[in-house]
Write a structure and sequence with these properties.
Rossmann fold, about 60% helix, binds adenosine-5'-diphosphate, 5-stranded parallel beta sheet
Length: about 180
């Protein structure tokens, strides 16, 4: 159970949980949002290309995202497993992920869905205050989650484990761990 995809609306706490779970499983936490923000901070060509999408809360085009993830998954530390946070974000990306893993003779072991009310996450994001956390952009990210990302739950079907994402950070980590344990 070390090839895990985390799915949930922006603000659900995937990043926080991924950090804890990554320590627990000894596999890297791969966040496409973090990868993009690092490119932007380092002012790379890719960073310059994607900045406007992040600033406006739109998805970065799939070709760019998929290629970045393909390269990241090819690094030695990700060969034995990973926690993917923020990827895939639509069914097309999920198909590409399936292909990347299939070529390596592996597959996604589990998809953890973080379930949380939209009002709660909007409050959290406004409090967080990242560059792209103004109300209009937050709302756009939530809409895109509903229309593009939620369909992944049907796509992955029985691989999906749903966890209540409201509560204490540690408590939620325990919920995820026990849900993953029950699955194996
Ligand atoms: P949040 O979960 O709060 O939206 P992320 O750090 O996951 O924050 O993503 C921030 C932004 O990075 C997104 O709004 C989008 O522009 C871009 N992004 C992240 N992951 C992807 C992806 N898989 N496909 C396209 N764009 C992405």
């Amino acid at each position: 159970m070390t090839r895990v995809v985390l799915v949930g609306p922006p603000g659900a706490g995937k990043g926080t949980q991924a950090t804890a779970l990554s320590r627990e499983f000894g596999v890297p936490h791969i966040s496409t949002g973090d990868l993009f923000r690092a490119h932007i901070a380092n002012n790379t060509e890719l960073g310059q290309d994607v900045k406007r999408y992040l600033d406006s809360g739109q998805l970065v085009p799939d070709e760019v995202t998929n290629e970045m993830v393909r390269e990241r998954l090819d690094e030695p530390d990700a060969r034995g497993g990973f926690l993917l946070d923020g990827f895939p974000r639509n069914v097309g990306q999920a198909e590409v992920l399936g292909k990347i893993l299939g070529d390596a003779g592996t597959s996604v072991d589990a998809v953890v869905e973080f379930k949380i009310d939209e009002d709660v996450v909007v409050e959290r994001l406004l409090a967080r205050g990242r560059d792209d956390d103004n109300e209009e952009v937050i709302r756009r990210r939530q809409q895109i989650y509903r229309s593009e990302t939620e369909p992944l739950l049907d796509y992955y079907g029985t691989a999906v484990i749903t966890v209540d994402a409201v509560g204490d950070v540690d408590e939620i980590t325990q919920r995820v761990l026990s849900a993953l344990r029950d699955r194996t």
